[in-house]
Amino acid sequence: KVCISGIKQTKMDEDFVLPQNREDSTWEEDDEEKMEESNSDISDEGPECSSGRVRGWESLPDVCLRHVFEFLSDRDRRSADLVCHHWHNVMHSPSLWRYRFFHFSGRLSKYRQSEYCSAVAYAQSKGVYLQQLEVNVYPPRRSLAARRLEQAISGLLSELIRVKAPLQSFSLVRLELDRSSWSTGLRNAIVSGLLLFLRRGSSKLTSVCLNGMRNCLNHGMELLSALSLSERRHSPQCYISSLDLRGFFSGTVQVYLNPSFHRDLHRLQGLTDLSLNYSCLSDELLAALQHRQLESMRYSGRDRNTLQRFSLQCSLNEPHQQLVCGSSWATLASNCPDLQVKLAVDQVINTNWLEKILLPEIPLIEYSMTAFYAPDEEWSVKPVLSVMLPRYRRSLQYLTLDLSNCSESVDEELLELVKACEHLEQLRVWAFLDIRTVERLLHIRLTQRNLLNKIRVRIYSVNDDTGHQEDQLEEILNSYLHLPPELEFFAVIYPFV
């Protein structure tokens, strides 16, 4: 953090409320004139010193001041804006206002303005510079908080449309509209505001994240259709290259059965990064992504819009038992040679289902698995470690496992998997393991796997007193004091609750 001393301020509000009573200028008065200079920013030359001597902060070039101001909070920026005319002018540099993060909770505070007022005030004064916007929502538990959230989000989107904000990246996370605190009217108002924003205020969007929105099928398809139509209007000058729809639909919706979903994703010709729930996956979707790529190459003569990253999230409480053919994956991978697939599996512990999900034709580079199961359950993680994951020994780079395997030992299977994966770069394991497995992992890294430069091991223990195990671990680590500098290694004993 950078601290600026000597800043004087006559009056300062707790929220981002713009000073209105300055005689020399206000934040709003210069916005139109500053916007004309948005591509060039303010000159990198600072004010000249008549004496030719370095006099301190006032002699810093504008580019240095902008760099310092980037680290300041809104309150400190308001203070810096009141120091002098020069700092006031630098504070209006568009580069300082191109990114904004809001966290909405729907709660009121006597120390702060409402979220609606602070968001709208920011959009009114600085929306003309805004290129990246992230809104993280704390899901409401009561209808009153939901009403405040709807007001804040709808007001912000409406103001962004009015000022014609040049947004390139838009993220609205964790709305969770399937909660009972959202009434039908509030859900409709949120969706209507987003639809209007996508139709009128998305001319420059290249990245959209609506993770955790949890729409019903009709609302979700309306939004996706508006997004694809918006891209068709503004292509080829602008197109959506990154789309995150994990948790976009409610967990009970079988999206893979809806042909409109495949059709709308097929229309996104510029897509290179796609994130979905496994409930959306089907042969028809993979075929639509494949045909999208072929059409893009045929009409544009370019191969730059190839799908490169495909992230899937598979959860026990969402549809995941549909049949997807390995040949569909193989065809997509052949048409998208740079395709990399990331798969996160949460609490799916049925071996037959996992066998259908982990097809060998998938170009899998990252696998994450959480599997908490009771000791009396007739399930073992060993087939995953010894049969399914070794299929990706030539592609797997990142592996994360969180297992409650207190009734079975998986040390040997884990070590053999690490040996088999030729390109493994990162390993995170939280499981019941033998202490000596840490030493064996280090030995494998130092003798066989030079690419494996990030290892995190959390050894679960059923004992409240882990002192003896910690002493054993410390003894092992003390014998490896001189590890390669590029290796990030961490191991800890952790009581399992």
What's the helix and strand layout?
Elements: H1 31-35, H2 62-69, H3 74-81, H4 85-91, E1 99-104, H5 115-126, E2 132-137, H6 143-163, E3 169-173, H7 184-200, E4 207-209, H8 217-234, E5 242-244, H9 259-267, E6 273-277, H10 283-300, E7 309-315, H11 326-335, E8 340-346, H12 351-357, E9 364-371, H13 382-388, E10 398-403, H14 411-420, E11 426-431, H15 436-447, E12 454-461, H16 467-478, E13 488-495
Parallel strand pairs: 1-2, 2-3, 3-4, 4-5, 5-6, 6-7, 7-8, 8-9, 9-10, 10-11, 11-12, 12-13
Helix pairs in contact: 5-6, 6-7, 7-8, 8-9, 9-10, 10-11, 14-15
Describe this structure in words.
- With 497 residues, the protein is an alpha/beta fold.
- The longest helix is centred in the N-terminal third of the chain and has 21 residues, at 143-163.
- The protein contains 16 helices and 13 strands.
- The chain starts with 30 loop residues before the first helix and ends with a strand.
- The chain has helices at 31-35, 62-69, 74-81, 85-91, 115-126, 143-163, 184-200, 217-234, 259-267, 283-300, 326-335, 351-357, 382-388, 411-420, 436-447, 467-478, and strands spanning 99-104, 132-137, 169-173, 207-209, 242-244, 273-277, 309-315, 340-346, 364-371, 398-403, 426-431, 454-461, 488-495.
- The chain has a 13-stranded parallel sheet, with helices on one face.
- α7 packs parallel to α8, α8 (217-234) runs parallel beside α9 (259-267) and α10 packs parallel to α11 (326-335).
